[in-house]
Amino acid sequence: MVLEQDHALEVVDMAINMGPQHPSTHGVFRMVLVVDGEKVVDVTPHIGYMHRGGEKLMEAMDFRQGIGFADRTEYLAQFSAELAYVMAVERLMGIEVPERAEYIRVILTEMNRLSSHFMFMGAFGIDSGLFGTSFTYAFREREALQDVFEEVSGDRLMYAYFRVGGLAWEVTDNFTQRVHEVLRGTQQGIRDLDDLMTHNEIFMARCQNIGAFTAKQAIANGMSGPLLRASGVNWDLRRDEPYSVYDRFKFQIPVGNYGDVYDRYLVRLEEMRQSVSIIEQALEQLPPEGPIVPEKMPRRLRTPPGEVYTKVESPRGEWGVYLVSKGGDKPYRMKMRSPSFCNLSALREMTIGQFLADAVMILGSMDIVLGCVDR
Amino acid sequence: MLGIVKSFGMTVRAALRKPVTVQYPLVHRDLPNRDRAFPILIWDEEHDEPFCTGCHACERACPVECMTVVMKDNPKHATGESKRRKIIDEFWIDYGRCMRCNICVEVCNFEAIGMNNTWAGHELSRYDRSRLVMDLDGLLSQSKAKKVEPGLRA
Amino acid sequence: MLLSAPSIDISQPAVSAGLGLFVITLLMTVGVAYATWYERKIVARIQQRLGPNRAGPFGLLQPIADMLKLLTKEDLRPATADPIAWEVAVFGIFVPAFLAFVAVPFTADWLIASLPLSLIYLLSVSGLSFIGFLMAGWGSDSKYALLGGMRAAAQLISYEIPLILAMVGLVMVTHSADVYAIILFQDKVPLIVWQPLGFLIFLTASIAELERQPFDIPTGESEVAGGVFIEFSGIRWSMFQLTSYVNMYVFSLLGAFVFLGGWEWPFGRDIGWGYQLLLTITKMSIFVVFYVWIRATLPRLRVDQLMTYAWKVLIPFALVQIFFNGLVIVYDLPDVFLLVTSGAGAVALVTLVYRSVRTTPRKPLQMFSSAEPARSVV
């Protein structure tokens, strides 16, 4: 009997669509994975589901109206986005911010870093398979932080509190005491998450040696933030190109060795502890009274023609604002350099060759915010 | 295995703590004074009219252009009861567009607008989006009934 | 023995067996509906929040509310689903779970059928369910379902083997394959004392058979968004969920009977059916609470790690257990030798930290101070 060779079984790789609606893509992000059994052969990311024309809209906003838009672009690290924007305008106009305002800005930005990293811990636990336990522990602390933000600025998520030259209004009277209270709870929360996840053998087996990226690859892909530091690159904007009053604090910068998912998790956990230390130092050094806007604050915010690029170390990496002004009170072009967009561009290189379940972990470890990927 | 035992210890400790749930429809958390819900207009008790004179400052300053303002001559000025020459005639705010950024409160020269900081400002669900456009009476009702004292004013 | 409740006296064996099966099905359906209730409550407490508490006092009517919702849902059916496989899949999983109750002795007098090989019957019937998973995965005509179905089949078949081997160890010690006789064997000392390694293997393999965390790859919610069940909705989906809880009850009962002594230990047979039932339920609850606790605490293993664990760790240890049992039986060594060797094996299994199976020790994070500028970036 003759075997019919031309009707042999055709083996094709399966294309799986992790669509815009998926429990673990952290926002509207679409990934088409081509898998061979369980190993990923190709990844095609599709972004743009959340594009709102933010940069174009900002061209129609003056420098106070645009702060609310910066919030909505990077909706988990709002104060970093606001800070970059107002710093850009201040540099163009040559305004110097009073010290008390700078210290309060640093305190709030670091608290925002804490709340963003808590969000990461919660979501990462869910990605790795925990039944929501890490999420509730993380959000318990996040709610406490948001309560302080609500008392100071009035809103729980879209603060719009920084203004060009300083702050919008003075903080509440019991601000330092509230922050101390919240920091105690936060340290307990960090310990909880640490106990739950860090040394859990199953968690380590899921995270170690997954998505490893060398320092060279990280720099070549334009990464920044915890991903860069986890790959072994010793770079942190708060120390290397200090802005605001960060050069007055002593803190440590964790740098990983292997660049895998576990290192990124450890770097973020350690960064949370360092943020707590920075906040405590800032609370001690905070001038008890002082102006929050400079005395000679111009009533209308008109910038001289010019361009400027400011960058801050947001919880995701380097958030930059490139502002071009032709005089007048609205920017001519306002570009936001978003860390999530640049980090996400390395997804393909990191994921090829890993298992399907690891693709989810790698995406989770990048900690992207689709608002700032798509703007 | 020790790490797994540590995780177990953590969950047992958490199970023995008090739950942090606030059972919302039955229990309402205290809102802080500066809480920013949606903007409302303030009623002037002394002169029995709104503080707002319809000067369009907030309408121009709004980033999302959610307000429409129409002013008129104040009938009470002619009789000498009030110092305001003009008074607000029609005022619409589309709560569906408002982004609660507080700029309208900051630019108001008469401290006539404030952010509602009560639960009534947050519990504004409607079945139809057109019902979210508030007119003058809707905006004044909370302040007239003395139910709200907005926080930050200037 | 025939089912003889205190007041009914029926002499026809088929009728009384049928009646017994009917009663058990009814009780178990309500029982698993409330299993969802206390699972949600326990998991909620671990997560420091309240569980369901609005539907009825303490949320006790929540399972009924869920049931009503699921019953009234539209029965969606993918147009390209395989008609036979998709329809029968649910029953392929549901029926074997209930069939296992035929051989379960709730107390000394209450069982539907007394089989001389009831342990083998239980294990084989509960192992039939993987066919249902395959049918659901294939018949749904969806890539996610197919992936889930393949993973489910691989996992269920792989973990049958350590489960059965652990039970073989028990059979060797008690010289009987009847669950009833194994319970009677434990009138002085429960078998967990003689077979701690077998107990640990049973525990792990049973969690894998139940497809719960940390072994819930087939129904991995965050990756394949529900896996095998993705195309089933309404009453069909609820049957899947209930089957998962029925299986949990079956394995808890099995563990309570063969390892913890069932209704025999510590008080013996003469205390009456009420106390025996209470003992059974208490020991079953220990297992159930443990399963729920593990579910809320541990993340999910990846498919290859799961397979590695079954084939390279659990099966060798199970064979080691059988070997030592054999030594004790053939050379007529005293029972305490069993305790020592099995205990040592259990300790070895526990301290076989998972990471030592695959990774080497890692360098800790380097910490750089903010005061010194970086000498070199890389």
**Oligomer type:** heterotrimer
Q: Spell out the helices and strands of chain A N to C.
A: EEEHHHHHEEHHHHHEHEEEHHHH
Largest sheet of chain A: 3 strands, antiparallel
Largest sheet of chain C: none
CATH superfamily placement of chain A = Cytochrome-c3 Hydrogenase, chain B
User: How many domains comprise the coordinates of chain A?
Assistant: 1
Unreliable residue runs of chain A: none
- Residue fraction in strands of chain C: under 5%
Distance between the termini of chain A: 64 Å
DSSP strand tally of chain C: 1
Low-pLDDT windows of residues of chain C: 4-9
What is the number of E strands of chain A?
9
Question: What's a concise summary of this model?
Answer:
Chain A is an alpha+beta fold. Chain A has helices at 54-58, 66-73, 78-93, 99-128, 133-153, 175-198, 201-207, 215-220, 226-230, 237-240, 261-285, 339-344, 347-351, 356-366, 370-374; strands at 14-18, 30-36, 39-46, 162-163, 166-167, 252-255, 306-314, 317-325, 333-337. Chain A is 47% helix and 14% strand.
Structure overview:
The complex is a heterotrimer of chains A (375), B (154) and C (378). Chain A is an alpha+beta fold. Chain A has helices spanning 54-58, 66-73, 78-93, 99-128, 133-153, 175-198, 201-207, 215-220, 226-230, 237-240, 261-285, 339-344, 347-351, 356-366, 370-374; strands at 14-18, 30-36, 39-46, 162-163, 166-167, 252-255, 306-314, 317-325, 333-337. Chain A has one domain (63-374): Cytochrome-c3 Hydrogenase, chain B (Orthogonal Bundle), CATH 1.10.645.10. In chain A, strand 4 (162-163) and strand 5 form a beta hairpin. The N and C termini of chain A lie far apart (64 Å). By secondary structure, chain B is α+β, with helices and mostly antiparallel strands. Chain B has a single domain (29-144), classed as Alpha-Beta Plaits, CATH 3.30.70. Chain B has six helices and seven strands; from the N terminus they run αβββαβαβαβαβα. In chain B, the strands form three sheets. In chain B, strands 4-5-7 form a three-stranded antiparallel beta sheet. Chain B is elongated, with a radius of gyration of 22 Å. The mean pLDDT of chain B is 85. Chain C has one domain (73-353). Strand 6 of chain A pairs antiparallel with strand 1 of chain C.
